[in-house]
Design a protein that fits this description.
The protein is an alpha/beta fold and 287 residues long. Helix content is 31%, strand content 13%. Bound molecules: manganese (II) ion (MN). The site of manganese (II) ion has 5 residues, from loops.
Length: 287
């Protein structure tokens, strides 16, 4: 057992993103050797687990410690039968570790961010109010915070589709009675454009300081093209504005990490993959 644990909830349709995220952490985080990885899940196929293991052979997969409260909550941002948002609570109960680090699966680490883990003095530190990156120090790491989050979700945020984030905000947001510190958006960077918040121009200006990119909203580099006339409104794992998205540097970076991950982690299955693998290079165009 290592000192720290990364907690990255996932599902079958987020498996590729999760694997690339873990790969990116191991590549860039200076203290990665001191970190275990756990993937909490409700729906994750064997194939998806095996895929994620290519990024970390020792990754653990865990069902939620308590999911009995799901049936008291009518729906979440992912719809009526999907309670995956509440898997974030699992990061608050990881026995035997000094600190736990929660990350959304739709993120990518592009630079070392050890400082937000090492600087944590036992409190909860995060980029309030977005539940994308959270460091949970030992004062709050255990069953009692987990139970409190569930209690808050049921008593205050039951009918809100974003009840998980609302619950963490209640306990660790501004004005909360708990010990909290905040870090800036370089550790949870969403302002890169593509039809969502920010712009590609903004990304390029800040790029040297950005450590973790968050592909929040319908801006998933691995997602299918989405249109509200066809697909249901709860589908978030997709791309709303492909033209803009494919011109975003943040998206090009994810795609390069994906190719790199395949070169490092897989037997090459196609002529281009074999070429990339034997030359350790990523091709820019069909050769
Ligand atoms: Mn996200």
């Amino acid at each position: 057992m290592k000192k720290y644990i990364f907690c990255i909830p996932s599902s079958t349709d987020f498996a590729v993103a999760t694997a690339v995220l873990i790969y990116s952490i191991k590549k860039n985080l200076k203290i990665a050797d001191e970190c275990d990885f756990v993937v909490p899940y409700n729906n994750l196929s064997q194939k998806a687990m095996n895929y994620i293991r290519r990024a970390d052979i020792d990754v653990k997969f865990e069902k939620p410690k308590d999911s009995s409260f799901y049936n008291e909550i009518p729906k979440t941002i992912y719809g009526a039968d999907n309670y995956d948002v509440y898997l974030s609570f699992e990061s608050f109960w990881q026995d035997g570790y000094e600190k736990s680090i929660y990350l959304d699966a739709d993120m990518l680490c592009v630079k070392d961010f050890s400082e937000i883990i090492l600087d944590n003095k036992g409190e909860v530190s995060w980029k309030y109010p977005n539940l994308g990156t959270v460091v949970i120090g030992e004062n709050y790491l255990g069953e009692s915070t987990y139970r409190r989050l569930i209690d808050v979700a049921l008593s205050m945020h039951k009918d809100k589709p974003g009840g998980d984030q609302d619950s963490v905000n209640t306990l660790f947001g501004s004005g909360s009675p708990n010990d909290v510190t905040y870090f800036d958006d370089m550790y949870n960077f969403q302002d890169w454009g593509g039809g969502g918040t920010g712009s590609n121009k903004n990304f390029l200006e800040k790029r040297d300081n950005i450590k973790i990119i968050h592909y929040s909203g319908r801006r998933k580099p691995w997602g299918k093209v989405w249109d509200s006339d066809i697909y249901d409104s709860e589908d978030k794992n997709c791309v709303y504005y492909p033209y803009m998205i494919y011109n975003c540097e943040a998206v090009k970076i994810w795609c390069r990490y994906f190719e790199e991950f395949k070169i490092k982690a897989f037997g090459a299955n196609s002529p281009i993959e074999r070429y990339q693998s034997s030359n350790e290079t990523i091709v820019e165009d069909t050769p």
